[in-house]
Amino acid sequence: MAEVHAVAGGEQLRRRSLGPAWSALTCALLLTLLAGCAVEGPSAPQRSAEAIQADIEALLPPRVPQRAAWAVDLQLVFAGLKLAPTTENVCAVLAVTEQESTFNPDPPVPNLGRIAREEIVRRAGRLGVPEVAVTLALQLRSPDGRSYADRLAAVKTERELSAIYEAFIGQVPLGQRLFAGFNPVRTGGPMQVSIDFAEAHVQQRPYPFPAAQTVRHEVFTRRGGLYFGTAHLLDYPAAAYGGTMLYRFADFNAGRWASRNAAFQQALAVASGRKLDLDGDLFLPDPTQPGQTEAAARSLGDALGMSDRAIRRDLERSRGEDFDRSDLAIKVFALAEQRSGQPQPRAVVPRIVLQSPKITRRLTTEWFARRVDERYRRCLQRASG
């Protein structure tokens, strides 16, 4: 998953004072030109919701069930997020959805019952609870009449598993001890979006649709899963990517701006001569124990003309939109290009090995991003065809 876009640095133009008469004339000319532009030609007509839904339905992969319902929900999602339903944006969302769930709002996970049982035992062991106590707790009868052990053995989807955990936590004293305030089902829905992300997102922007239950429950619905997944994928600025969706696909897996941050790590490795993991994670929580990226940046303090404190301050901006405009990023890229004699990419797909109890083979963020990108390009071909 790895590639590139240069960020152009801008020069500020200084204004010359040419006197009030000239300024007035200039303003008048500008107003005339702007007025001419405003009335020249008809404005683009607003497309109806029905027209947008028809376009989305045409872009869906073949054999997707309930095509009209998917199209309606996705059109509402773009309207709710105030994002343009362009072919590129729609195809990006459809590609992630196809990769993550093949358009199933509640996709089955192979061997989920066994995985869940092992996770319970593992968590109990870390808390000093013997496995025999866990076994006894799971024999208790749950609200639907079955034992928790039976429900776990039969569970097929993450939504079912999340419901079992919630009942277990609320009913069983041992559940409170093992899982109080923590449901280990962390992703869900048709785009397998992070529930933590969804819960944080509604703190910044109210959820625009009626919700019968919690944000967690909404993630497992078709519309809610599309809403939070689309927000995670598209609803943030990423100028360094130059419109290349591959990096957004990588960020969907690794975290927002991870591709931009990985490019910074690559430039820092060139500038410092140190080998760095290109994972997009630039600092550890404790500034007194710097990670490898922060240590490499500090080693260049004299060359960059920056103190350890200034370096740390800029690294902490890496979880926001403007890190590439920080002194640290600008100076590191300039030094790397000076020492290498060639331009450095401003976006690189992070190199991360994916870890999850659900994963049974070696997968990486690059594998994910490129698989999604293939689906994205097929969607664009459907649009042009």
UniProtKB/TrEMBL annotation:
<dbReference type="Pfam" id="PF07759">
    <property type="entry name" value="DUF1615"/>
</dbReference>
<dbReference type="InterPro" id="IPR011673">
    <property type="entry name" value="DUF1615"/>
</dbReference>
<protein>
    <submittedName>
        <fullName>DUF1615 domain-containing protein</fullName>
    </submittedName>
</protein>
